């Protein structure tokens, strides 16, 4: 049997102790500048370490990032009878960790400043995690007991994307390899979808996804081979701009070599810094793996939906796409900054198919060790085949656009379940109002937030005896 049974709303056991432990340890790692979750915060951590930026300045940036992600993405897809997103834990602990004092020139146990920072991290991070688990559990119970129950309908937010996620590789092919290639990919996926339907296979969208992904990999390998052949056939000197005065002077070449050596030495030094803190990084990874497998947190809304209905392999495949899209960026920032990414999207890929949370914890812990020791190796591969990074960048755009449209449709479906045709009209109106207001709400979250607003309105009307 793959994965674990999912109970919704998330049960207080094991959610509360897991959330508390993850919150406490992740806050400690952020406080010590070891591991950070948000990709926008990680690049400024060296400035905090060197003293170029104060903790107050970094905390201000972190708070802005955390607030935007929590209310506009993490929370709307974490309420009701769904698996909540891990963003709610780690985005907040990023802010708590950078806000608390720390003397990074000394060991964590040395000096009152460090001891205060560690103790505060454990208490505040743990309290945030435990409180979050309690709040989400009882909020879902409350939503289910309203005059117009909302908890069950929140699952509709992600239903369209669950059916359309095969478009991730299709749109990636279209953006990177052109419209004609994208249309071929869509056509192939459609044929596979119909064949799977005819054969009565479960979830035709999964088989369509597999076909599109395979085609994308074929394009990627062909591009990599063509790029490698071109570099082999052209003499090395032809790849460089000719100098007007002939060959470049020796001192210029030596400077370039010195810069490359300095950069390599810096990368190696940063990776050594991460390795020194590997034990705690591995423990946090194990806790995350257990939580993913137990179904009390998820990395994204639609893999959460798939896993909740026990479609374990499709959920892992979705996360594999996320990993491909984000891994180059996360590994690069880790090597450049000396601060590891708290999550690399590979953890759910490994954790979800495991038979129980204990095995998942061990497997993800091993994965994190392998990731850390392969940082420089993977960066070398990315530099050797830059098309991997280019396709990954395009894939992020494709994923976000499918989510944006799919979640808008999902919000309309949920609003229709709660308020009929008026609910759909309200979500569409909210979309245009948001555009007119210059998008104060993240478009990816607009559908869910508008639908929840519809749910509030219909319950207020129901309380005073009015029904739509």
UniProtKB/TrEMBL annotation:
Q: Name one Pfam family in it.
A: YhfT
**Keywords linked to the UniProt accession:** Membrane, Transmembrane, Transmembrane helix
Q: Which domain of life is it from?
A: Bacteria
Where are the membrane-spanning stretches? 12-37, 116-140, 160-178, 205-221, 278-298, 304-327, 334-352, 358-382, 405-433, 445-466
Q: What name does UniProt use for this protein?
A: YhfT family protein
Tell me what organism the protein belongs to.
Nocardioides aquiterrae
